[in-house]
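Box S2. Input/output pair 1.
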Amino acid sequence: MDALAEDLELLPSTRRVLRHRLAVAQSEGRSPSLVAAVSRGGEVVWEGSRTSVEGHGPDGDVQYRIGSITKTFTAVLVMRLRDEGLLDLSDPLGRHLPGTGADEVTVAQLLAHTSGLAAETPGQWWERSSAELRPGLAEVLGEEPFKHAPGRVHHYSNPGYTLLGSLVEALRGKPWEQVLRTEVLEPLGLDRTSGEPRTPHAGGWAVHPWADLMMPEPAEDLGVMAAAGQLWSTTGDLTRFAAFLLRGDERVLSAESVREMRAAAAPAAPGSADAGYGLGLQLNVCDGRRLVGHGGSLPGFVAGLWLSEEEDLTAVVLANCTSGVPASTVATDLIGIVAEAEPRFPEPWRPFREDDRVPLELTGIWYWGTAAHVLRLRADGSLELGPAGVTGRAARFRAEPDGSWTGLTGYYAGETLRAVRRDDGTPGHLDLGSFVFTREPYDPEAPVPGGVDPQGWRGIG
């Protein structure tokens, strides 16, 4: 076995703890069946299932309905439209899909659930009633679609993602599911993800709250609401999709674009246990670990897909009960079990190649006013800026062709870092979003805003 395979294979003790967590979830949640998978480094390292039926249990090829995890797939389609230049996230919806009654909300607000639209549709419970009751967007939105002013608060909205699905159809000229299959499912090899169930698939069940009895749930086609929750999938497909959400795939979305999806775009709603929302992805912090993913539910099914970028771990949990199993909690627990029992090995340190351009003159101590910062150059060509010995702002920067650097994280994300050079070509100071960083505190030879006292530093007279 090579070293990589050894690093990916879990210890028997870890696998037992994972099996135990799954068994507890199925037993306490009283789910007819439950299936889960954990992947690391893009490879499945553990699969498990529990069932109330004797004999063969579900595996990674059995479809379950995934509910609102569908929204993440829809968000990927919208980001593809953005990357192709067909829209901008700041565009009002009415520019591309006029006449809905929500013309003023932006694409970004719809993606991040800050549009102010209602959480649900008017009329009957849409997940458990015929799509014929909602033949178009007018029936989805109703006469008073807004509960909040656009852009003010995070308010989860199923109709909002219905609008995004219709936006995809308007700009592609094809049905949402057809676009999804051609542009996402087929390139990523997700051939067990579909709008309608395909054998083998689980049936959805309601479990009586006060008795150990079950009743089948109807599996309604969601019609125009499909982009908000229609899909069926498997743990096999969803672990591959989660790996894509971590790394990107140039056939679908770049690593930079999926990183943008994972970044916070909206704060958590008041009273929510979440840490906020990205672009089609929920954010959470569990035991100090930042997690990104999405939960899902429809009558008869619950689902959770979560990932940790830091640990390069993903977990998927699918169950066929209307309530009882906290699928997202179980998925994040599985990540925590592996992360704590078998921490990720760091990448080996490697120096720069001899032919790399190394801007060594930028590294070392710089001062913002009197606050010392260290600028470090990493082997991947990025710069890291952080406070020296005290608390302060830290960020990582990506090199640009014009010699500048773009912030990727923290307070300086999106901001430009430039080295302003003297006549002899040596760096005199750094300009970071108008902040001047100098080689010594308040360097009198640098253009420090407000100037530097000509008497310089002095003690008490």
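Box S3. Input/output pair 2.
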Amino acid sequence: MKREDILRKLGSRKFWACITAVIVSLVAFTKATPETTERVVALVGAIGGLCVYMLSEGMADSKNEDVTNIIKTDDFKPGE
């Protein structure tokens, strides 16, 4: 698996929803109190949200703006 694939998966909301579901299931399996379950869900949600934000910002910052895609008004002629 390439680095880009791993980063894309870590930045996926579906991935974090899956991780949260697995962790909540494990917490429920151990018969933890509802308060403990809420805290675990909050922690996983916070970490997942932070990872998605950081990876999204990193990908946005790493993309170069291609100035060749700028359309000039001189390129348009009336009637075309």
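Caption for Box S3: The mean pLDDT is 76. The first helix runs from residue 3 to 10.
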